[in-house]
Amino acid sequence: MISAYTKEKIAKLALWLSSFVILAVLLGIIAFVVVRGIGVIDLEFISSMPRRGGREGGILTMIVGTLAIIAISSIVASPIGVAGGIYLTEYAGRHPLSKVITFGADWLAGVPSIIFGLFGFAFFVVFLGWGFSILSGGMVLACMILNTIIRTSQEAILAVPVSYREASYALGATKWQTVSKVVLKSAAPGILTGVILGIGRAAGETAAIMLTAGSFMFRLPTSVFSSARPMSLHLYILAMEGVHPGAIARAFGTATLLILVVIIANLSSRAIMSYYTRTLRQER
After folding, report:
1. What pLDDT, on a 0 to 100 scale, did the predictor assign at position 6?
2. CA atoms within 13 Å, Cβ hemisphere of 38
3. In a 10 Å sphere around its CB, with 0-12 CB exposed, 13-18 middle and 19+ buried, how is residue 20 labelled?
4. For a designed S-S bond to 212, which of 38, 120, 184, 233 qualifies (C-beta 3.0 to 4.6 A apart)?
5. Rg (CA), the chain
6. Hey, how many other C-beta atoms are within 10 angstroms of the C-beta on 41?
């Protein structure tokens, strides 16, 4: 019969092996892309306009389009998501509406991105008449990352000790004063992490953007109603033209830059969390 000590050792070994396999697969994918794309990246690639359908030249248009769409999605989704998290944790209680909102937020996480794209095409592009534009793409991505921001805001607010609220009430603070001055300040690291992770997810979406932002525009956008071709969509289209050596090389270069954007977003979330955690500890 296997002893409890041996079972614990086996379980630890299995966990270590699982972690190693996941890390190895991740590093293998990143290395495969970066090794083939790093040679393409230079100042001209980043700062020049595309030529010959993107098979030559740079990706300045795609970088600007990506940043514009991400900016709109984060500006729209962040306040709504944080407000939803505050309502669900501090005001809703056991109200049936809170269960509906929570179910809806969880359901959004399981919806394929192409479904968001079809919704965005039907509603933003056609019904509202915004056309294939940065605004349509940004609004669709806002819908996609809303669940991430709501749920992370919920968890961050729930992690704030109840004693903080009780101390605030004991000093005569109102409900909103307690939420805005005490709870949100303590939950800020987790909330910001959720927002940044949502931005990282938005940066890599393709299907939803294809049906809302357009795919054949190579000029710099002049307004939110201009079409755009973000890096993720540009990468997809170039990969489909893999028979052209210039297309596949620039596809890997674009993928490398996109990986860097996602990595920077994740590292930024960790840095912000660490900074706010240290600041809160010093204030206490």
Report:
1. 83
2. 7
3. exposed
4. 120
5. 22
6. 19
pLDDT reported for residue 1: 65
pLDDT at residue 58 in the model: 82
The domain 38-283: what is its CATH number?
A: 1.10.3720.10
All structural domains of the chain with their residue ranges: 38-283
Q: Is residue 40 predicted with pLDDT exceeding 70?
A: yes
Dihedral angle computed from the Cα positions of residues 222, 48, 204 and 38, in that order, rounded to the nearest 10 degrees: -170
Residue among 119, 68, 70, 118 at smallest CA distance from 227: 68
CA dihedral 151, 157, 162, 165 (to 10 degrees): -140
At residue 213, the 3 state secondary structure works out as: coil
By mean pLDDT, which of 41-45, 188-192, 239-243 is the weakest? 239-243
